[in-house]
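[step 3/7] fold_predict: job queued, chain A
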Amino acid sequence: MSEPAAGDADAFRAAARALAAETAEAIESLGGAFRRLDRGSMWELQSGLRPLRDRLEEALAALREAPLPDRFLPLRDQLAGGAEAAFEALDGFTRPVPREQRSGNALASMRGLARAQELLYPLRSLDPSLGRLYAAPAVRNDLAALAAHSSDPGTGIQRSGPDDDPDARGEFHLYVPESLDGSAPRPLVVALHGGMGNGRDFLWTWLREARSRRFLLLAPTSVGPTWALMGPDADRQRLLSSVEFVRERFNVDGDRMLLTGLSDGATYGLSTYLAGDTPFTAMAAVAGVLHPKNVQDGAIVGAEGKRVSITHGTKDWMFPVQLAQAAQQALRGAGADVRYHEIADLAHAYPREENPAILEWFDPTLALPERAG
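[step 4/7] structure written:
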């Protein structure tokens, strides 16, 4: 194959930059739509996202049609793969489907969104629009600082389990910021996915903050389709073993270990934290509820002195906000130190914009300049 002219390389770079920008906007916009998704908002959200879907499709076509020097083939394939994952997620979300298929369709789009972020992460230095996806707003003016790499080969994204099954049940995904040198102990955040989810996807809910604020992030996957909320607890020992694995290999600050979770992950995490005999120093529940097994004779057991954050949407269609209100009152009455925050437009979803406030409640030293003081 003959090498295209320099002008062709410039055309490819322009197409790649345009696609990167459209893909980043698609990821941010679709993520914002998920947090507002309830039974009455689907049509409005779909209508708002269709123009973005069309622009992303056009940008993908332009990249494929651009003259391509051989040396750019791997880059083209990686970028196109991430953009295609974002497009498929966006296209699936905006496609009209029968009512009974909407939940499954939305779940598939959420997984596609996570896959797009996973595929594009190695290209975060390619273009600022991609770099900003993985950086908190306060540090987006200095993306180069986040790009610094430690000499430790154990940094970055890693996982347990078989090589051919990244979604294996009962395993975990771990992120260690590339800029960490291990000289100082750092906090650990353990994030539990919701029902039917996995750690591979849920990692991206917190990676931006972990990378920007330099803490370790562990995202386990439940043994079953969701966490062990009924019957024997098949998850507890695996959860604690994965935490111990991280503590043995990295410089984790044992006084700063946050357990957090969404929906079933929040319910299971809160139950585990209140049950005691864990290394966690705080629990942040999002869109979860109190588990009955933490209540004896009408009183919450194990709450005295525990630090708990509860975040809940007033439009949560699965667990009405009144359950969260009652939980925070009961926890306070049982002696817990509770932070409670309702979000007016939040459905049953994860509000990524709430992560900074949760982190700064958990550990004020994790504040970035935009929120310091």
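[step 5/7] annotate
Residues 218 and 259 are 10 Å apart (CA to CA).
The first helix runs from residue 6 to 35.
exit 0
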